[in-house]
Predict the structure.
Amino acid sequence: MSNSMKRGKMGILVGGGPAPGINGVIAAATIEGINQGFEVIGFRDGFKWLAQGDLEHYTKLTIDDVKGIHLRGGSILGTARTNPAKSETSMHNVLDVLKKLGVTALVTIGGDDTAFSASHVYRRANGSIRVAHVPKTIDNDLPLPGATPTFGFETARHNGVYILRNLAEDARTTSRWYIIVSMGRAAGHLALGIGKAAAATLVIIPEEFRDRPVTADLVADIIIGSIIKRRAEGTLYGVAVLAEGLIESMGEQGLIKAVPGGQLERYGRVVRDDHGHLRLGEIEFGRLMKDLVTARLEQLGIKMTLIDKDLGYELRCADPIPFDAEYTRDLGYGAVKFLLSADAQKFGAVISFVDGRMVPLPFEKMLNPQTGRFQVRKVNVDGESYECACHYMIRLEKSDFEDPAQLSKLAATVSMTSEQFRQRFGYLVGAA
C-alpha cells in the first residue's frame, strides 16, 4: 500500500448523529494509518472546535488507545453537527488549524452534511490535504452502490426489532395500541426494516404516498383503518410504526394545521440545525398523532388506550452487531488505502465497498452541486420486498370495500352503514 506520499499527520473526526460502528472505523483507520507511517490524531466533536480555530481539542491516537473499541458503541471522539461551510471564517479556521498541525490526510465519518463539509476541506486545501469520507447513518438513506447498507443500520434494526417485539407483547397483554415513531429523516428504511422483521401491525413511510400530499389527517385515518380492521377480527391490540420522515413530508404548515387552534408549540418547538434541517426530535410527533387518532376514535364511538413512543436514541449508540463490526473495519482500512492511492491526489471521495472491493466515489459525483447533499436513497415501494411487507400488514385495502360481507363487518364495528363507511374511509384506497 505504501507510496511516495509524505505521511505527516492523519486526522480523524466524526460528524452528525451517532451510529453503531463509529469506533470500528476509528480503530481500523488508526491502526492502518500508524502501520503506514502516519501520526494519527483524533479531533473532538467533529468540526466544532476546528471551526473556532481551536488548537487544543484533539488527541494523539495510538494502537493501544483503539484496541478493542470496534466492539463498543458510541464514539471515543464524540460528534457534533457543526457546519463550517456556512461561514468563510469557520472554513478558514478549519484549514488553518489543519495546516498548523501538519495534517496531510483527513478521514471524516458522517452523513451527507459531514461529507459536504469534507468536500469543502478537500477543495479549499488545493491538494495539500487528502480527504476520505466514510458514510454513516442508521437511516440507510445514502446512495451507496447496489443495496450496500450504510454502517450502523443493521445494528439499529437488530436492536429495534427486540424493542418492538417487547412493546408488541405489552400491547397484546394489555389490549392497547402503540404508535411508534422510528428515526429516518428522509426515507423509511429503518421504520420498515424494524416493522417488517418484528411483524408490526402497520408501518407507514413517506415513500408510499409517492406524489400524493401527506397530511396528519391521512396518516391518522390509515392508523384508524388498521385499528377498525383488527377489531372486526376480534383483536384489540396492535403496533403502528411511523417513519419520522413523515414530519418533513407534512412540513411545518401541515403540522400546524393538524393541531387544534394551530398551537404546534403544545408538541414542541420548530427548530432547525446548522444545515437547515428541522430538528425532528424537538417535535413530539408521536404524541400529536396519538391525540389526533384518539379524538377521531372517540368520534367513532371507540374508547381505547394508545401509547406513543419514539424509537431511535436507544439504537444509535448500541454495540455493533458482527455485521457492522466487520463492515466498519473494512471501511476504516479502505479509507487509509484510498488516502495513499494516486486517486486521492485527484479527488476527495466517499468510501464504499462493492462485492468485497473498496470503491472510492468522488465527492463531485456523489453530492448534488445545488444542495451540497447526497441524493436520498428511498425505499423502493414498487419492488417485491415492499409488496411483501404490505401483504403482512393489517390495513384497509380495496378488496375490503369490494366484498359486501367484509365491508358490512367493518362498518358494524363503528356503528356505520356500509355506504357510510365507504364514504368515510374509501378514499384511503381509491374506493370512495
